[in-house]
């Protein structure tokens, strides 16, 4: 069966980890714009060169660049029967762009999973991850700026999807399995047979 999903939540809520689990359950690709940008930065592509300074500062990459990247990725054959977007859309303009893309294909989103957690707990989590993984874009200043940008720019997009009745809230604090089970239950309740 197909599943067109979005996972959203503040930085540090565990989106990437949970995205991988959900994607394997539904046999759909987990598409993380952050990962794609990081890969481009690492490879020194023209896109990576444009994105690097913005990412290092905790700012967003411009919508036109991001939208184009997602258009290309969703056109790949593995996304034909579904996808899980992680880190996109992040602005209202990106929501509108995605609406247009899906409408062109006659597709619709099934569910938006919102991971919910206390901000201070998330900042602690991110600082720990930065140490463990040596992520250059994760300084304390950048982490705080990212939380702020998230609240300003991305929290409003959740309201748009809430109005459409697509959002399920999941408590993001807890072990990976515990949170994964909550997501599976929430998706099952929405008629998507997850078996995480
Ligand atoms: P993430 O790993 O999802 O937290 O993304 C890391 C960084 O990549 C963000 O702080 C942004 O600079 C950039 N980025 C990722 N996704 C987007 C997006 N949808 N729109 C704009 N910038 C993005």
User: What is the annotated CATH architecture?
Assistant: 3-Layer(aba) Sandwich
**Overall number of domains:** 1
* SS content category: alpha/beta
General form:
globular
Which ligands are bound? adenosine monophosphate
According to CATH, the fold-level topology is: Rossmann fold
Q: Supply Rg.
A: 16 Å
CATH classification, class level: Alpha Beta
Distance between the termini: 16 Å
Oligomer: single chain
Question: Can you walk me through this structure?
Answer:
The chain is an alpha/beta fold. It has one domain: Rossmann fold (3-Layer(aba) Sandwich). Helices cover 58% and strands 13% of the residues. The chain has 8 helices and 5 strands; from the N terminus they run E-H-E-H-H-H-E-H-E-H-H-E-H. Helix 2 packs across helix 3 and helix 4 runs parallel beside helix 5. The structure holds adenosine monophosphate. Adenosine monophosphate binds next to helix 2 and helix 3.
Task: Using brief descriptors, characterize the structure shown.
196 residues; alpha/beta; Rossmann fold; five-stranded parallel beta sheet; 8 helices; 58% helix; binds adenosine monophosphate
Topology (elements, then pairings):
Blueprint: E1 3-8, H1 15-26, E2 30-32, H2 33-43, H3 46-57, H4 63-74, E3 82-86, H5 92-105, E4 111-116, H6 119-133, H7 140-163, E5 167-171, H8 176-189
Parallel strand pairs: 1-3, 1-4, 2-3, 4-5
Helix pairs in contact: 1-8, 2-3, 4-5, 6-7
This protein binds adenosine monophosphate.
